[in-house]
Amino acid sequence: MKALTLIALLALASPIVPALASECPALLQHELPKLRSKETIDLCQQFQGKALVVVNTASHCGFTPQFKGLEALYQRYKGQGLEVLGVPSDDFFQESDDEAETAEVCYVNYGVTFAMTQTQPVRGSDATPLFRQLAEQAGVAPRWNFYKYVVDRHGQVVAYFPSKVKPDDPRLLAAVEQALQR
């Protein structure tokens, strides 16, 4: 009897697994290497069902102090389901070739606790698939470091902001709140 019950439960559960996998938005169906780690970030596993701010970063840019504001944004909204993903890029020639230096800037100098990837291309034909899809949805690829894309819980870009828009800008905060409500 117990064996039959177990078999029945397994039979009922097996259709659920593919259904859950298909619920992950196309935007998140990627993995990126984690900064200063041999691990990868499975975007579906870590961000599915959450609002997300994706930002291309650089360690030697005039906008680098925005890490502090991004961390504050993350701390303010993470309890409501917001995640932040920082993607260092040397597309504008302002990221270190030394991953340890990039990590030091993020983790030591600015106290970043949100997810950070290893350096990735974010524009053009070499762009990582995540950034190609962000650019396609938003209609614009990053034009400089610290472009911010706000993504709702369903993997849809609801807004994007250029480098000069700081993480505490009321327009960005409104977009984050909108993404959290969707």
In the CATH hierarchy, the architecture is 3-Layer(aba) Sandwich
The global form is globular
Helix content: 25-40%
Number of domains: 1
CATH topology: Glutaredoxin
Q: Give the overall average pLDDT.
A: 90
- For the secondary structure, the number of strands is 7
H/E element string?
HHEEHEHEHEHEEH
Q: What's the end-to-end separation, in Å?
A: 45 Å
Helix tally equals 7
What's the quick description here?
By secondary structure, the chain is an alpha/beta fold.
Can you describe this structure?
With 182 residues, the chain is α/β, with parallel strands linked by helices. It has one domain (25-181): Glutaredoxin, CATH 3.40.30.10. It is 38% helix and 17% strand. It is built from 7 helices and 7 strands. The protein has helices at 2-13, 16-23, 43-47, 66-77, 99-109, 129-138, 170-181; strands at residues 31-33, 40-42, 51-57, 82-88, 115-116, 148-151, 157-161. A 5-stranded mixed beta sheet has the order 5-4-3-6-7, sandwiched between helices. A two-stranded antiparallel sheet has the order 1-2. A hairpin with a 6-residue loop joins strand 1 and strand 2 (40-42). The longest helix has 12 residues, at 2-13. The radius of gyration is 18 Å and the shape is globular. The termini are far apart. The relative contact order is 0.17. Residues 3-21 have low confidence and may be disordered. Residues 1-21 form the signal peptide. Keywords: Oxidoreductase, Peroxidase, Signal.
